[in-house]
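Q: Can I see a sequence and its folded structure?
A: Here is a first one.
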Amino acid sequence: MPMPDGTLRALFGMEPEAAVGWLRSKGMRITWSWAEMLDQAHARAFTMAKGMRMDILQDVRGGLLDALKEGKTLRQFSDDLTPLLQKKGWWGKQVIVDSQGNAEMVQLGSPRRLKTIYQTNMQSAYMAGRAQAQQEADAFPYLQYVAVMDAATRHSHAALNGQVFRKDDPVWASITPPNGFNCRCRTRALSAGQLQREGLTVQSSEGRLLTREVDAGLNKRTGELFKTTQTGIRTTGPDGKPTVMWTDPGFNSSPLAGHWMDKHLAQKAVSALGDEAGFAMVQKAVLSPTRLKAWEGFVANTLDFARTQGQTMTVGILPYWLARKAVIEEPVLYVPDRLIVGKKSQRHIQSGDSLAHSEWSGLPQLIQHVDQWYIDTHSKNIVAVKRQGDQVVKIVIAPNGQIDTIHKAISDDIEGAIRGGQLKVIQQ
């Protein structure tokens, strides 16, 4: 199902600013196999299979950014990038040795690979820009799934064509286009008036969503079988028969699963402070299994990359009672990658009080089970403490919701700060 050169801009007909911002916000991740990093991790990091050099990733991402900003076609993108990749030796079939010393004959750059890279990333970027604009348009509370409906359209994608759901329906968390390589589907925002004029009916995904674990690929060197989750929705096909529309492996998330979603969740939490049920809905989204999985991917990507890229990710949310006290501006908490691998992290590693990889991965669960919350009377930051034997994990949270410091300490340090008046208990 190839996508003709120039089709992307014709499909979307939009200015590229939001799309450029989305692609620029993604970090970079070196991977051997595309299947090593799936679903929401792809919304946060740019990668290419066998892209084992950071300069190659930078060149390709730079070419995509130029193509977005200048409206370049696939041919222009390929003409610009091909000689550069050839000069650097990332072209054709070669024996490549990975970081573990394993050698394999692989296909590096080629016209076909550049076409796949261009089409997949350009459509994801345009869809992210479109989805962001649609989510922010309060006058259009509904989204309609639109397939191209030609001979190249997947049967299952055609089965969703024309169906309308509310923007906050859970279906869009996993089945926002693109839903596979070369998928040309999109969403259309609708107002209540448009629904009435066009005679459309709003559907619900409740009871219709399915998930299954599937094989996403085999690591030929290690024998490891990559697994991923697919989400599907029960529907009726163009032939009138019941069917299930499944996302392709690796496309089981929204293109907004990155930084815009973190910001959106924070805004939702602030607006819901007067409504405990509304706040609980945001809390459920922040701590959903897919978000927790994405957090684990963020930690792994950051530690593997081993230097900062200016990335951030939501890690938790304050308890409702604490958020209501207005001691902090943003109740949704987030971590910048520099906290995990930056200078402050290096100082804690040297002093022996840093978190291990598993502890970083488990941070969302730790925040849910904090033993005591304090206010720092000097800095006005919130300090969360979780006791672990004779030690504690100390989390310092700035007023904007950013976790500014996290490290292990001995209990006596906390008790001393309390006696000295620096830390004051926040009563529930």
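Q: Show me another, different protein.
A: A second, unrelated one:
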Amino acid sequence: MKTPEEFRAEAHKMADRIADYFQQIEQYPVKSLVKPGEIASRLPDFPPDHPEQMDDIMEDFEEIIMPGITHWQHPGFFAFFPANSSYPSVLAEMLTAALGQQGMIWETSPAAAELEQRVMEWLKTMCGLPADWTGVIQDTASASTLTALLTAREKATGFSVNHDGFDKEKKLRIYCSTETHSSIEKAARIAGFGRKNLVKIAVDDNFAMNPSALRDAITKDLNDGCRPCCVVATIGTTSSTAVDPIAEIGKICREHDIWLHVDAAFAGTALVLNEMRHFADGLELADSYVFNPHKWMFTNFDCSAYFVKDPDLLIRTFEILPEYLKTRTRGQVNDYRDWGVALGRRFRALKLWFVIRNFGVEGIRDKVRKHLDLAQWLAGEINQSPEFELLAPVPFSLVCFRFRPLQISDESAIDNLNEKLLQLLNASGRLYITHTRLHGKYTLRMVTAQTNVERIHVEKAWTLIRATAGELIKSGNTGE
């Protein structure tokens, strides 16, 4: 394509394809059923020397690429946590691609910088977050956590690590629960703390961090000459959406001047509902906080909302000012290149702005409340079934459960049976769920938070789960 006219024609066709995809998405298997290497084997070893027509490219897209797509926007997608899309978000992404903004500093895109500032203020109000926090959009919660740990590191060392590097004598310690997301360990490694300085704190029966165990670990480290640097607490852990007691943890951090970072990557969207804000009791004690609109707020990946109590500490940690980035507006505006790891920045605020305006805050609340209700309905069905059991509380829209036939008592056999059940369900193409382990038990995870999921989709999934489990028993393929 070389002319606006050619682009216009192809863009109209693409819009129709996208609309057809959303309309027909339930005809696809939720989880791709291809085998490893199958897609690559159909792609040429070398790129084309000459231009190819868009019709030919799109034909290959349908025949080669689409079979290898797992459909995250399918209402039968109950796996992991969602990476939700929506109509207004997709439209904004089209504009973002067309504008091609590089929002590293205010001068490279004043609208990108100032819209980001405003929508982060909107999010703060929508979710009832502390008024004195300041927000910035990062790409993912992993990047936000790394940002928090780096800032905590510099605060604890008087910014000496940025200048001198790590002193081997400084044993800075990071604390998180045994249920905390793996990105915490990854960030601890990248930030130079080292895996051995990440202290995993025991959890209670509901998989939330035990504050007494945290206090004991901090006391021991102080006695051993280590320096507690940061605690990472979670609102909605990945395996079970457990909620750490933020208020108690925050008080401990205040006593010892320890940075408190709160990870609410998935569950943070629930705070748009007043009735869910008790899960964030004590959040005002946190130094930094993250949640992902790209998970449960219907905004295309990637869009991670990171808030910090003291933005000056954040900026001082990351700012570097070469001559070619000096501007006359510095100090009057937010140059977001200084607010995280990356210099280059996408115009992520645009899609969030579109979503909030097109849904409206009440529209977002209605969707989230529906997803919570669906999870409670499913949990109720599981509780009423003699051969299924819940394995964790259901505070949000994740339901953790397993199949446990009355005639089977061996835990290893029950684990094997549930693993086979998971494989059969996902191979059906009708739904996609994932698993974890809770108290050592193989656990099925089902998240009712996809943008377009309705009661009928959850009912169909539950019917399929029970039917497939029954067939496993009838076949004698129980894993014993």
